Predict the 3D structure of the following.
Amino acid sequence: MKTNFASKIIELVEGDITEMETDAIVNAANCQLILGGGVAGAIKKKGGPKIQDECSKIGGTFVGGAVITTGGNLKARYVIHAVGPRMGEGNEDEKLRNATLNSLKVADDNNLKSIAFPAISTGIFGFPIDRCAKIMLSNTIEYLKEQTGIERVVFCLFDHLAYQVFEQQLTPETE
Ligand code: AR6
């Protein structure tokens, strides 16, 4: 599914984010920037050890923060590591909003035109998928309405249920 917002494209895809050919893919990271399971595990496996080496040099970031490394052997040239909230730690909505917006800012700071997000925090971190879809989509739409060089944002959902939830949220009500 593809939708246009302020002449920018938001696209929903069902699949594996490590196969995306966007300028950057976003990793659902932790504060220590240690690549564990889920999206991070897939990135580590397909991207090779260089990505973890670069993360270790950066050392870490805050919940809601985002940092960039190269993409190693991935099709995407860069990986933006965004730290979403762990369900139950408090202030989760605000932290997920920050993780989304900071990822987009990092992409802009590096003159990237396209970026692919997973549903941050909805796996190991236990955040509800419907709340995630609402927060990530509405904030991305707001961001794209402002001054940005980003032309295309993909949300890459791992299963059909997650895809359907994002599809439902990507309606005129979220504008
Ligand atoms: N492509 C797209 N989406 C995926 C993929 C994939 N290859 N694999 C999983 N998902 P998660 P989190 C979906 O657990 O909850 C790691 O250990 C998955 O179904 O990757 O933010 C990190 O190192 C879910 O909907 O991220 C952190 O410590 C979503 O991506 C911690 O987990 C996010 O699941 C981060 O947990």
About this structure: The two ends are 16 Å apart (CA to CA).
